[in-house]
Amino acid sequence: MKKVFLCVFALALLVATIVPVTACAEAALPSISAKEAVLMSEDGHVLFEQNATEKRPIASMTKIMTLLCTYEAIDSGKASLNDDVVASERAASMGGSQVFLDAHATYKLEQLIKSIVVCSANDSCVAVAEHLCGNVEGFVQQMNDKAKQLQLVATHFENCTGLPAVSQYSCARDVGVMLSQLIKHPHYFACAKIWMEDFVHPSGRVTGMTNTNKLIRFYDGCDGGKTGYTSEAQHCLAATAKRGDTRIIAVVVGAPDSKTRFKEVSSMFNYAFANYESKVYADCNTRFDGIAVEGGKTDTLDISAQGRLVAFGKKGSANAFRVEMNLPETVKAPIKMGDKVGTAQLKDENGRIVAEVDIVAASNVEAKTYWDFVKQIVTH
What we know:
The chain is α+β, with helices and mostly antiparallel strands and 380 residues long. 29% of the residues lie in helices and 27% in strands.
């Protein structure tokens, strides 16, 4: 069977173009030649930026919002990864990066999502948009609605692919925010880490996919991102990397060549990992002292955090935070797992709240029945 391999670069050239994966201890602020750049933590702390809110075309980084809206449709129950998606003639006729969908053929939604993440397939974007909203135009409206919800400062979409459009634009900071939302969806990482994989069509024909984000293979900790290129946008890249508990996002828009975009994002990662860190103070696995239960079949309620309390800052500064629990002395049965019973706040050295999560019941506690009380009296 014939295979079409997309975006394959010589490995020798790749190794030569990317900054070494081990960050030096004295990493300085990066020098950026791209038109725009931003470096931020996963929760939005901006560490470095350059012209980061200027309106520019962002090419296929547009697909970050396409994917985000798709995952949110799945989360809401409007779609499933197992959905059958019929590729329209419009989808199959898309140019640029593609997996060469067969018109009228049926594909799984998960398969199409994977092709968007791995090899930036324009045809799959259109097929997904039509499946979720009936037409591309309705899906693009959802993309713009989501941009408003996220309070993006300089973003407007005209299509779901990033192909050139006069009134379509975004900026480095907005792309960083979009990527920070996309990476909240675990399935994204299952696709983003793929380096090469075959896309098998219903007919048995095979299209070879190669990841357009070369940093997932050549930068230590990089596990996601999106490239983009058009003559108008030039070379673009948004990527994320994680080492230990620290996750960083870096974006460049309008780099002069592909070599530069990978090098400059790598340089920003190096700077961030050398100078900043995250410390997790609480998450869903953190053990807390239980709460006394009134009228329950058990005397103590197990509790857990519904989310994470994470401090991010210059290395060493993340140790200066403290967790303050706001819990009642007792709770009254019955209680269902997941019921909110209080909050936990992360405070800095000046007492300012920097993060807050709900504390919830980690188990069910049934209320005592009449016979439970009788039994208690008899046994005592």
